[in-house]
Specification:
Blueprint lengths: L1 H20 L3 E14 L10 H5 L2 E13 L2 E15 L11 E16 L12 E18 L10 E3 L4 E17 L2 E12 L7 E3 L8 E13 L8
Antiparallel strand pairs: 1-2, 1-10, 2-3, 3-4, 4-5, 5-7, 6-9, 7-8, 8-10
Organism: Schleiferia thermophila
Protein name: Outer membrane protein beta-barrel domain-containing protein
Length: 229
C-alpha cells in the first residue's frame, strides 16, 4: 500500500510538473522610457510642468522567463540620465544643478492579473504588478561647484554603487501572438542620499528616489506544444 501511494505521489508530482512546464516560455524585451529624480534639490513639484522639464531618457533590454500564465521573473539592464535644477522648485539666487549617468541591473518579478503569454492569445490585455531589487552605478556631475560651497555640504561628485528596490505596475497589450507592448510606471527607492552629488548634513531627509514611465516591446519564445486559447 505504501509503495502504491509513493508511486502515485511520484506520478502526480511529474504530472503536475509537466503541466506547469507546459506554460513556461521565454521573453526578450526592448525598453524605452523617461524618468525623474526626487531628492534634496526637488522638495516639491508645485508646478507640474517641472516634471516634464526634468524628465530624461532611459534605454535598456530585459530577459524574462514565465513559470505560469500569471508569474514572470527576469533580469533588466538599463541606462538612463538624471537631472534636477533647484531653481525649478524654490526661489534661490544661485540654484544648484546636477546631471548624472545611471546604469542599473534589476532582478524583476511580475504578477499578471489575467492568464497571459503562451496559449492565451485571446487575452489581448492584462494589468500587472511589478517589483524587484537591483544594483545601480551613478556618476553625478555638478554644473557649478561654487553653488554647493558651504560648511554643511559634503560633495560626492564621483561614481558610486548603490542598492535599491522598486515597485510599480502597468498593462500588457497583445499585438501579435508572439509580440506585446507593455506600458508601465515604476518607482525606485535607493539606499543613499547623494545620487545628486552632495549631502546636506543639516537635513535628515529620506534617501533619493527616482522613477518614470516606460514602454517595453517584447517578443515571446514559446517553443513546442502550442495550444491557443
Amino acid at each position: 500500500m505504501k509503495k502504491w501511494l509513493f508511486g502515485f505521489s511520484i506520478l502526480l508530482f511529474f504530472q503536475t510538473y509537466a503541466q506547469k512546464s507546459h506554460y513556461r516560455y521565454s521573453q526578450v524585451g526592448l525598453i524605452a522610457g523617461v524618468g525623474n529624480y526626487s531628492g534634496d534639490l526637488t522638495p516639491n513639484y508645485a508646478n507640474p510642468l517641472n516634471i516634464f522639464r526634468e524628465m530624461r531618457p532611459e534605454l535598456g533590454v530585459g530577459l524574462y522567463r514565465a513559470f505560469s500564465p500569471i508569474v514572470l521573473m527576469g533580469l533588466e539592464t538599463t541606462y538612463k540620465n538624471l537631472y534636477a535644477n533647484e531653481g525649478n522648485h524654490r526661489n534661490v539666487a544661485k540654484p544648484r544643478i546636477f546631471t548624472s549617468h545611471l546604469v542599473q541591473a534589476n532582478l524583476v518579478g511580475e504578477i499578471i492579473s489575467r492568464k497571459f503569454g503562451k496559449h492565451f492569445y485571446k487575452t489581448r490585455w492584462a494589468p500587472y504588478a511589478k517589483f524587484g531589487a537591483g544594483l545601480g552605478v551613478v556618476s553625478p556631475t555638478i554644473a557649478d561647484p561654487s553653488s554647493f560651497e558651504a560648511p554643511f555640504i559634503e560633495l560626492y561628485d564621483k561614481s558610486y554603487f548603490f542598492l535599491k528596490y522598486f515597485a510599480g505596475g502597468g498593462i500588457k497589450l497583445r499585438t501579435k501572438y508572439k509580440y506585446s507592448i507593455s506600458l508601465e510606471a515604476v518607482l525606485h527607492l535607493t539606499n543613499i542620499d547623494y545620487i545628486d552629488g552632495f549631502l546636506d548634513t543639516r537635513l535628515k531627509s529620506f534617501n533619493d528616489v527616482y522613477g518614470g514611465f516606460r514602454v517595453i516591446v517584447s517578443k515571446y519564445y514559446f517553443g513546442k506544444h502550442l495550444n491557443i486559447k
